[in-house]
Task: structure prediction
Amino acid sequence: MKTPSVEEHHVRGYDGTLLAYHVVGEGAPILLCNGLGGSWMAWSHQIRYFQDRYRFISWDYRGLYRSGPPANPDALRVEDHTRDALTVLEAAGAERASLMGWSMGVQVALELFGRHPERVANLVLINGVAGHPWDTVMNLGFMGHLLPPLIRGVGSFPRLAEKVTRRLVHMPETVQWAKRLGLAARTLDDSIFQRLAGSFAELDMKTYMRILELLGEHDASRYLGEVDVPTLVIAGDRDLFTPRSAAERMARRIPGAELLVVPGGTHYVAIEYPELVNLRIEKFYRERGWGAG
Result:
């Protein structure tokens, strides 16, 4: 699949951090709230399908990919990324947008709604939870106690983590093993996944692991009952990281939320079953009056 032609821009965040943001398409704005493991490239199928009707705006989280390191090394919480999202929206000239979040981006989108509901037209929440994500991994409650110290431990040896990561992502059999182990569906778009893996290999793992650690402490559940904009929740029924049951609980707590569970989908449904996901989002936008009729 041909890579979309995306424009890159830069803007200073609230504390002076240099943020890279990306714009493509035309029409009603959609703010892409990325997962921690990917840039705008993870949304390539959605961008190509919708770019003639919607303007996609994305940004790289501070310290990752094309964005610079945070001016304050401790400013890596979801709340900091949310403030960056507002900066990017303003730089792109978008007063109000649809928020489309994947994985970590679900928490960012919900936090942005909770703090600035007037900027949010609707929510599309994919493969994510409202908060404390480690508590739901594999539906094993003890993961909430096991993973935080493990993440801190890995973060204590960033150079070793970078070496191991680069070796793994450049091994051609890694994707196949992910499929065999059920971490990804056999329909996964390998080309997109490989591009994401290539960029992931260049990350500063100390910053990445710190963001991951702080993500586990975040909880936007308090906002769920206050959501008064149209919301679509999309989950995979084989997602080990943010299981279907967690998505169903989140959807039940959001008034009027719609839910799509993708049979066979894992944590990467947007690049495993893009046709189904795109058609469902298209239906949601059309029925909720967002964008061109």
